[in-house]
Amino acid sequence: MATSLFSLSLLLILCTLATASPPALILTVVNNCPFTIWPAIQPNAGHPALERGGFALSTLTHRSFPAPSGHWSGRFWARTGCSYSHGRFSCATGDCGGRLECDGHGGAAPATLAQFSLHHGHADFSSYGVSLVDGFNLPMTVTPHEGKGQCPVVGCRADLLATCPHALQVRGPPHGAIVGCKSGCAAFGTDELCCRNHYNSPQTCKASSYSEFFKHACPATFTYAHDSPSLMHECSAPRELKVIFCH
């Protein structure tokens, strides 16, 4: 009788293990900057806003939350220099229309961006990359944990505010400090730099001296609209993806 009960228990355990779903993917945002930042998240069309799209994150703290269990894509960035004034919330960089919780709205350039496409393909891929196409405001990396396949740490660890060319500098209150580094497109608005109209193809959209400034400092990032697709990495079934600011 005891042997039968043991066999039944073992069978139940094996069945449970066989049918158990894999552990949920965790998304973690880490603030290693020596000041408060306001991370923001914008989903692509048709996907839900995560964490209502934005929150405050004090220095040397982090916030973790589960990713959607199905396919999700979107972008993360950080806002800096945020404050309430006359009943209105605003940020020096990355502002999403005066909202603390961006709730689906995009951010103002310049801002360093992390781009994600989660839970896709036959091997539960999560793709990720870091983009300076919209300029730079903070160092940022994406670090995967426990994935299989192509799972490198990518991003931009350099503080490009210190070396940003004069024509790309964005200065903020109260003392005119450099708070962002614009893209060539944002600074000059030409079709060639913005990869618009005739220049909107991989054959005609080329690197510029401005995108090369970003690429030289941070080679593992996208720096113009038709930059190499190989900069987007496919990691199979990671346990966690960390977005780290000021690594």
Automatic annotation (TrEMBL):
Which InterPro entries does the UniProt entry name for this protein?
Answer: Osmotin/thaumatin-like_sf, Thaumatin, Thaumatin_CS
For this protein, the parts annotated as crossing the membrane are: none
Give each disulfide bond as a residue pair: 33-246, 82-91, 96-102, 151-235, 156-218, 164-181, 185-194, 195-205
Signal peptide range in chain numbering: 1-20
Supply the alphabetized keyword list: Disulfide bond, Signal
Q: Which CDD domains match?
A: TLP-PA (cd09218)
Q: Which PANTHER family does the entry mention?
A: OS03G0233200 PROTEIN
Instruction: From the Swiss-Prot or TrEMBL record, give the protein name.
Output: Osmotin-like protein
Recorded source organism is Sesamum alatum
